């Protein structure tokens, strides 16, 4: 098989499919990316992926190329994992890379081929791509477009791909090879009992955005309740524990704090709203505007809290921000709440110093004006205020007594509600958190 697009999703999919025993060619137009992957180097941080990439490359099951001619000749099964970012100046998804991949690949294909789209796309895209492919394919050859959404989480990408929660395949009406081919591709997880759902194309496309919209809503729900907790003098973390015991609710994704970011949740809920509007169902998803607004409000609220904790003004204060990745175990800073807060603190006059175990290079590229320290220890030196913005294990494990010796003022705001509040207060810290009155 080939995997077209070797970003986060595609590179992971390619390596994991090779790990499952398939012969895989990863294809991308980005020469630097392909060069790095071909050398066995993963151009982003994902635990476990470099090992899989090296292992499968060494035995010759995984190769990379920038040539669509190679792709067309290599296999009859193709996965599409290109990016679908938010369009500039609109909420909608930008489908140019999906279209470009079809336009580059399909005219070169000979015989019967199947393309499984994995990218997150607006409902209706697969059908449109089938029409596009039909108009480009050589006479006598054929291409089927199917949709096989990807649910992997950054930080758990290898595990989520090799042993997924579920496999969804959207197939076109009438004659289709997609289910049979997908059963072969995913034979290993299917033998392991992974649920396999075959749907129409539109349902498969919607499954992905609906799942992400639900997760975003769950996070914003608890963050909205967190605002009420603060106003009422209650504790959102205990509340989340208590409601989480109800297994209809569940404790996962009730982590109140700085809210969600990353390359998926924010853009996916916006694209979902935009598409619903185009389909005449705009009222259905207006609540997602509120989900988005609650989420963005967290960042402002954090800055306000920091200002208050700094005595009313941030001007000239040394503020240490621990973490700038959008979540731990990732070097991704796309729409990162942590980096956004660091940027705002700096714009409001604070001397802002950031430390993150993995995301510093990516952060520096976006916000070159912040100070970047080489270690947590260096970042904490002389701080007037500490803000925990990404819950890396390294930060959760910090010893409050040791950290107190480094800073000028022992004041910390726990933006992710992960520190042991009592231990920090016992060590003499003024401890503040979102959604808790302590
Ligand atoms: C998400 C989906 O989980 C995944 O299924 C989909 O394929 C891609 O989008 P990812 O972006 O890797 O995955 O991150 P996820 O673990 O879902 O976290 C998203 C954001 O929500 C992070 O910024 C995280 O910090 C935040 N979050 C998560 C919370 O604020 N509270 C929580 O309780 C959980």
UniProtKB/TrEMBL annotation:
Pathway assignment: Nucleotide-sugar biosynthesis; UDP-alpha-D-glucuronate biosynthesis; UDP-alpha-D-glucuronate from UDP-alpha-D-glucose: step 1/1
Signal peptide residue numbers: none
Active site positions: 264 (nucleophile)
Residues noted as binding NAD(+) in the record, renumbered to the chain: 28, 33, 84, 120, 154, 267, 334
Enzyme class: oxidoreductase
A Pfam entry, by short name: UDPG_MGDP_dh
Catalytic activity field: UDP-alpha-D-glucose + 2 NAD(+) + H2O = UDP-alpha-D-glucuronate + 2 NADH + 3 H(+)
A molecular-function term among this protein's GO annotations: NAD binding
Keywords in alphabetical order: NAD, Oxidoreductase
Domain of life: Bacteria
E.C. number: 1.1.1.22
Binding site for substrate: 151-154, 208, 253-257, 261, 327
GO BP: polysaccharide biosynthetic process; UDP-glucuronate biosynthetic process
Domain UDP-glucose/GDP-mannose dehydrogenase C-terminal as annotated: residue spans: 320-421
Protein family (similarity comment): Belongs to the UDP-glucose/GDP-mannose dehydrogenase family.
Biological role: Catalyzes the conversion of UDP-glucose into UDP-glucuronate, one of the precursors of teichuronic acid.
Stated name of the protein: UDP-glucose 6-dehydrogenase
Organism (species): Corynebacterium vitaeruminis DSM 20294
Organism taxonomic ancestry: Bacteria, Bacillati, Actinomycetota, Actinomycetes, Mycobacteriales
